[in-house]
Amino acid sequence: MSHISASPSTRKLALQKGVDLEAQAKRLGRTTIGPEDLEGAPTQAASGDTSYWAVDHAQFGPVTEEPMSRFAQVAARNLAAAQALIPAVTHHDRADVTAIEGLRAAWKADAQARGVKLTALAFHVAALARALRAFPRFNASLSQDGETLILKGYVHVGIAVDTPHGLMVPVIRDADQKGLWSIAREIGDLAARAQARKIGPDEMGGASMTITNLGGIGGTAFTPIVNPPEVAILGITRTETVTVWDGDTPRPVPMVPLDLSYDHRVINGADAARFLAFYAGLIADPRNMLL
User: Fold this and answer.
1) Whether residue 172 has pLDDT greater than 80
2) Domain boundaries, the chain
3) Cβ(155)–Cβ(129) under 8 Å?
4) pTM for this model (two decimals)
5) 101 or 14, which is more confident?
6) Which CATH architecture has domain 88-290?
7) Which residues are catalytic?
8) How far is CA 18 from CA 11, 34, 36, 82, 289, in A?
């Protein structure tokens, strides 16, 4: 039993904030802690003992040092806090992309005439926007105290972009109200400007959910970290050919692996399975989201 004196509400708040009451009491030099003492206190993720990381690597061989950019340092702190404080689970599924690849091939000349690169990602953004409308709990955020679920009346989709200066997440606003060509054009514009560091702060916040797409690089599955205050994130890896049995007849089908990480405080496993099954259905038959 802790020798620290704190009310049940203070202990609950400390748990939500990730503050170690024992460590904070020691830091303040007393045994009684109130809610006001938690303001600005280091979280467990930030105040954990990392002294054993202080290794002189040069004793084992040649090394060089590369300073972390300010952008990367902020991202690292956010990711560490998210990983430490969110009870996240990842649900894996896959979707048939035969129809999407057929449409992309059929519309190639039209895309060139429009000056737009029609990537598979555009279809994924359109599908996610519709899935978020169909499953409102995924289009939500928890209040800071964890006691209120904030359901959003808009659908904004974040797109994780790998750049030389770090990961950036520009946002496609009102994605559920935009057509496929508009989404494709916006993806191209945001990705190009992210690479050039020409994305404004107002273009990177407020996403309903983020898509992180590794399909152009490789991999079969991964477990993306939820990006708070979002409650879920969708990962995509490289399309692979899977043998599907049609009765006794084997049929090769191009399938894209899908990885949905979610905050278990808000979303249950059954909810995640239904969400991803619905999403996979839209990808398999894109006519349902293009009408």
Assistant:
1) yes
2) 8-65, 88-290
3) yes
4) 0.81
5) 101
6) 2-Layer Sandwich (3.30)
7) 264
8) 10, 15, 15, 11, 41
